[in-house]
Amino acid sequence: MVLSDLDNWFVREVLPLEAALTRFLRRNWRDDAEIPDLRQDIYMRIYEAAAKGVPDLVKPFVFTTARNLLIDRARRAQIVSIEIIADLDALDFSADELTPERHASGRGELRLLQNALDALPSKCRRVVEMRKIEGLSQREVATQLGITEDTVERQVSRGVRALADAMVSSGVRLDTKAFGRAQNDKRLST
After folding, report:
1. Domains of the chain
2. Are the C-beta atoms of 135 and 91 separated by less than 8 Å?
3. Tens-place pLDDT, residues 3-25
4. Is the pTM of this model over 0.70?
């Protein structure tokens, strides 16, 4: 059986994210029995979208697709759990349509964020990726990298602060609450 370029891309870029995707789904969906079905639906959406055009940034695309599927499922449910709605509201989703302008702006911001992430020192970058993108706990990151939990905490703080600074210096407006926390962290650490 010969795999197509799309199949190869999917196996190479999307399937390695399965563990992080499963953790994301477990954190944001109450019924663990539905996780395999949700994951399969996400894979179908990703594959169909990639058939039209492969995304530049795979991780954000996968997790945005997952988030959108969870929102769709919650909206279609006959009886929607208050907990599900509260969890989805906490993720701060906008219900308005994604206009071409917002899509282009979002892609640009993702590119800036990826560049800022790539500019971090390798240890710091890996810790931030594991904590903030893959969703591992502080203890899991420390164990996998053979460092202390305090080191993980410091690296995440430095990395997130550097990312926020890079985004702001590029002209991106950040959520003032999140930026305020980053600025407070910066003042405390200096």
Report:
1. 1-95 (1.10.1740), 108-190 (1.10.10.10)
2. no
3. 688 889 999 999 999 999 999 99
4. no
